Amino acid sequence: MPEPSWLPDLRVCAWRTVSLDALSVPALSRHAESAHPADALVQSCQRLEAYGFGPCACGAPLSLRGRAALERLATVTAGLDSVVLGEEQIAGQVRTAFREARGPLRAAADLALAAARDARAEFPARSHAGHLLDRALTLRGIAREGRLLVLGAGALGRLVARRGAELGFDVLVAGRRDPGQGFAFVPLAGAADVDADVVAGCLGSGAGAIDPRGFRPARLFIDLGTPRNFVDVPGVPVVTLADMLEDEARRPHAMALRARLRESVVAALERRLSAASEDSSHPIGRFRLAAEHARREALDRALARHPGADAAAVDRALRSAVNRLLHPLTAELRRSGNLSLADRLAAAFERPPAGNPAHREPAPAGIAGTRR
């Protein structure tokens, strides 16, 4: 199968950051930014990864190139490396990291995001980050009762608080501002005076290190922060993300689920790479390109008629509708190899963009276009 010309030069440098302390994570981030000024940096609770092109001597413990680097990006995006298998938040972090990417780096991100999306459709997530609470309690044999104090009112804190309420805890959220989710709230500065059975740290990178001895005694402290929220103190019961990953590695069923997700992502990436090889000289590529030209003309007409409309929202809606209509047909053309039909469809749809009859461009990477 032909590969994109840029693929052999794609590179990823990666570090494992799970449960690093409050000094190590910022220092590592500064090092990565300095060593990779033109790269896309993906940072999650478990990893810090730099994707780009060209030589590198940053000293990262993991460095991959070519197809292996693209496969790495797709599996990370699908949540394979996340503590919660298949978590969806990582896809948003990848989109943010590649927001300014252009050219081949943008193409790599689009392929990885699409493959991860395909794999998730076949392998729907069974849990979210809030279920880390369940895993920590099970790991230490703590009863699911009493008061849960959640430090942090961000997205992770809200998920953990909601899960705590589902388990029957009396939930109290401590943060800089009330998240407005219906939970009892206390300012973060007053959290140390709260009586709690379980304390879950869900604070961001700016929180710094916290000594759990500054809180009232609890049956368990759960550290979900990157960098770590709590410093290690002998005799204080703390569960970290690293503890959960190590526990999972000892369970064959859990590892088998990760293997299944990997297989699904790799298969989806193969399909996406095959589709990407269909340029404007290929019958299916011509058909997709003709459909994209028609979509853009429809978008221009809609925006001309409604100048106050949200252009990005209209573009997304129209792209989604075209993709839903054309995906089954394009998939069948690839399956059957009926290129003569693809030629006839391309001829039926094909017409130059309005105002520029000579314009031609590469076929889009998606079913009927690629996000720009």
Walk me through the structure:
The model is unreliable at 353-372 (pLDDT under 50). This protein starts with 9 loop residues before the first strand and ends in a 23-residue tail after the last helix. A six-stranded parallel beta sheet has the order 7-6-5-8-9-10. A four-stranded antiparallel beta sheet has the order 2-3-1-4, with helices on both faces. It is built from eleven helices and ten strands. It has helices spanning 24-35, 67-77, 89-97, 103-122, 132-140, 155-167, 241-249, 252-276, 283-305, 311-336, 339-349, and strands at residues 10-16, 40-43, 47-53, 62-65, 147-151, 170-175, 184-187, 198-201, 220-223, 238-240. α9 packs antiparallel against α10 (311-336). It has 372 residues and is of the alpha/beta class.
Major pleated sheet: 6 strands, parallel
Total of DSSP H or I helical runs spanning 4+ residues: 11
Rounded radius of gyration (Å): 24 Å
Number of E-state strands: 10
Please bin the fraction of helical residues: 40-55%
Q: Shape from CA axes?
A: elongated
User: Could you give the order of the helices and strands?
Assistant: EHEEEHHHHEHEEEEEHHHHH
Per DSSP, what share of the residues sits in E-state strands of 2 or more residues?
A: 5-15%
Distance between the termini: 26 Å
Poorly predicted runs: 353-372
The main sheet orders its strands as 7-6-5-8-9-10
Structural class: alpha/beta
Mean pLDDT across the residues is 86
